[in-house]
Amino acid sequence: MFRIAQPSWTALCLAGCLLGASPGARADRALFDFVDFAAERRAMVETLRAEGITDEGVLWAMGAVPREQFVPAGYRRHFAGDHAIPLDSDTTESSVSRPLTVAAMSAWLELAPGDRVLEIGTGSGYGAAVLATMLKRLGAHPGRGRAGHLDTVELDPKLVVAARQRLLQQGHTNVRCALADGSLGLPGAAPFDRIIVCRGGR
Asked: Is 95 assigned a catalytic role?
């Protein structure tokens, strides 16, 4: 077995070929085999801390959620950079928000145990995963006994299906993804303790 200390993209593609992956999956599979994503996320968290994010719950969730799994394969080598990453959407101009945006908006919510949260604009599901992770860590409301829950709304059916799959694979059972026009909220699930708007209306 060979090891690449700081693999270049060319080296990763070559490694993928040696692993026998199909042409479309070679570089992506090689990336997962040779890049320390956890270390990249830790570095991302330290950058967020340096940018002024002080909420330890947010920082912990940002380090725990595998952002690399929420971005398109061709962008995974850049997943930890502080920039938005475009998504393939048929109906909306969607992207995975930059880490600083996700962290700042999550901190502004000031989540409490047992909160019911509405997110408008699911996108890839990354922001939902961060919020769900925070809610799970906060636990149930001590008086009402209910656990925190997130409803997230998205207009693009393709994004909804993909986000549901990612969130389910990562064990986020406290999230519900709805295909709906977020400009109307989600009346059937109201009221909410917190609302976060990640995309404007049309």
From this structure: no
Measure the CA–CA gap between 41 and 62, rounded to whole angstroms: 8
CB distance 133 to 61 below 8 Å: yes
What pTM does this model have? 0.81
* Residues pairing with 152 in the sheet: 119, 177
Q: pLDDT tens across 161-195, in order?
A: 999 999 999 999 999 999 998 888 898 899 999 99
DSSP result, 107-170: HHH---TT-EEEEE--TTSHHHHHHHHHHHHH-S-TTT-PPPEEEEEES-HHHHHHHHHHHHHT
Q: In whole angstroms, what is the distance from residue 144 CA to residue 156 CA?
A: 35
Look at residue 85 and give its three-state secondary structure.
Answer: strand
Q: Which are the contacts of 23, defined by CB distance < 8 A and separation ≥ 6?
A: none
Active-site residue identified among 94, 97, 106, 124: 97
